[in-house]
């Protein structure tokens, strides 16, 4: 492309063919050598990466840097703009819990959160955990969170300092601010205190990065003496642990993407064997919340595809005792629920828009909290205490900064506590947000959320950034995004395609974008692009498509299927070597993924599903547009070699001269840089690429 001038030669890695035969089909992988032999150990110690692989990744980084060298000033400008929209000394509104109120804050110039508490009704802040201080001297640092004991004397906190998502747990004396000697390693980052604060439960990750064992740790004893509470025998399931608001039970749960199972430990007897609530049944999900003398259970059992809420006695929680309370309504997807002394609350989605519904537990009367914009986002924060009438929720739209409300469930009074500040200024009246529907080939209507300046010409001349994900039932909210303004203010239309594979239009929308139906996710995204072109929001070749992780698989698939539709592709930690990964049951996420994509090891038919779209396997002689791929060296979810191999094969087959770029963060994993401003540097690179390929750099 003419916007990329005087580029040095791109890295051309050696080919070392490795063949694999499954179901009578032989595939040859020329770049399998990029996968480190000691990849599991490397998650703990990145320095052991084989020198040849490291040299190749560094050569790719140098090539990317050379290709983007003329945007360095633009990247700094974008970074400055995005940072200017962040209130640097921001603080959350503390949440009341017993004698204290707990919150988090950032300090001016700080990268990491500080956790604090105040007296319940206000007063001087006590800093419980200073994230910036803990991160000193570390190239990567991420706090997993902090949880306090019932007596508020101790806190569990965790950190990951490699980017590999193996978290170390520490116990802090909240009165002194000092950590105890206990060191609990290789956890998933969480922990649940026993009510007396003398012990806690946690999930340990195995050598394949699967949380498969639940342990009970007594504070003051070595981790080697921790008691094994539960071990998940099926590698397709992940185990986890949670607590109840009333501290009466510990939840031990096992799940994959479509099936769940819960066991309970009474906190009155911490050494009791976990008791099974309802045995796992393929495709049946359930979650529980305690409500005094009952449990409320959210489930899709009995054909309740969009979920219903059941109630069961606290002392007899088995499935035989479940009674329907909130019936299933097709098209009304219940997403989550919580219970308080006098109210039951749930977050639902109807007609692609969220609502919060409150039910009076005594009278059964229900009412909803909803808003009137075409597209918006709601977040249900709830409360930390059971005996309350007040919950919290957040609201935003693509034009409206986030607002935090306290809501009285009894009086229906809504109190605005905080509006997201944009220090550099933001006038919602300067922008337009819309929701349009793109017709898919089979007649389905794909929602597309739009943001643009009201003075942007809608005559096909505007460039567009089209974002998509479309997997695991995850819905991408139409929420306020300060970073996107840097593109919108430069004439872009910013769009989100709510494609099948998410739950944007109910559970069926998810099912129609997974397994055998996965191709719908890709054709939906292309249909969204075509609709934006037809309606003159943009034009063919003026769309930069962006997606990450499973959304990166989306990018790889659509650029194989319709390369000339797009003027550029941004693929962050992209799951592009899908077939090889799902064929390898030693990789961290593979067995649980079989219910999302299919099991190509056991089934020739399911092998065929994945082989039909797997981006790496379907690279061909196409006129690929400019592509920017981003990877993390210690990423356990999408391993670095997936984008590295993909980029090599793309360069080999592309019939255009457009550059294919790879940037690997050598100090981070799946989420990229850990600091709030460090992350902005990565976003600035992505947006500079979008502006460059659209001729606006």
TrEMBL record:
Gene3D superfamilies listed in its UniProt record: alpha/beta hydrolase, Prolyl oligopeptidase, N-terminal domain
- Segment Disordered: which positions? 1-23
A Pfam family that the UniProt record links to this protein: Peptidase_S9_N
The UniProt record lists the keyword Protease: yes
Annotated Peptidase S9 prolyl oligopeptidase catalytic domain residues: 479-696
Q: What general EC class does the enzyme of this chain belong to?
A: hydrolase
Q: Give the EC number(s) listed in the UniProt record.
A: 3.4.21.83
The question of whether Protease is a record keyword is answered with: yes
Recorded hits in InterPro entries, A to Z, give: AB_hydrolase_fold, Pept_S9_AS, Pept_S9A_N, Peptidase_S9_cat, Peptidase_S9A, Serine_Peptidase_S9A
All copies of the Peptidase S9A N-terminal domain together span: 13-419
Q: What are the BP-aspect GO terms? A: proteolysis
What are the UniProt keywords, alphabetically?
Hydrolase, Protease, Serine protease
Gene Ontology terms, MF aspect:
serine-type endopeptidase activity
Q: Which family does it belong to?
A: Belongs to the peptidase S9A family.
Question: What name does UniProt use for this protein?
Answer: Oligopeptidase B
Organism of this sequence: Gellertiella hungarica
